[in-house]
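Encode chain A's predicted structure.
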Amino acid sequence: MAAQEIFDSLPYYDNDLDVNPNLRHKVEQEIALESKPTQNLHPLVPPPFQLFTKNPLLKAEIERVESHQPIPLLDSLRYQLPAPTSQPATEEDWRAALNNAKAQLEHQRIRHSNVALLQTYGPNAWRIHNYLFESTAKQLELALEELKERTTEVNRERKQSQLRVGQQLTSLETRWTELISNVLQIELANIALEAEVNQLGRKETELSMSMSM
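Encoded structure for chain A:
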């Protein structure tokens, strides 16, 4: 189904409030007496876009940023190498501590490999990343300029349409005023003619009576 059309006023044509400043105060008083309008958006406005609906981690991060919450502190316990706390330590305790140390060593080895890969391929990857971002930014800027031009064109067409319709309304209103004035003049002329006819009728009656005597 097509979107419902909304007929509003003609702000480019209607200047009653500017011509009669007293009307503005009366209009504001009437608006203050009316109930508050509902905060409904225009039917053509799309619903709000939900980000990261399929990624709960990123969605939670967005909510954290929107609520101005601080970044959680890093868990440093996972990088420590604690010795067995039980005294005397059992073989299982030492085995768990040894496995933790091996995991930490493997983690550091992977980090070292990642740093080496970053030093080798990181600069070019970062340049490509920036190039893509710049290209995206230029496309968005062009889209924004196009949208602004379309908005200006819509407002220009809207103004021209309202001024054109306003001229027709002014012409029709002037014609209506002239017709009403003509009707009033005709009614006044009819009243005057009726009065004259009545007066002539009375004179005719008086002459008839005087001649009969």
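The mean pLDDT is 86.
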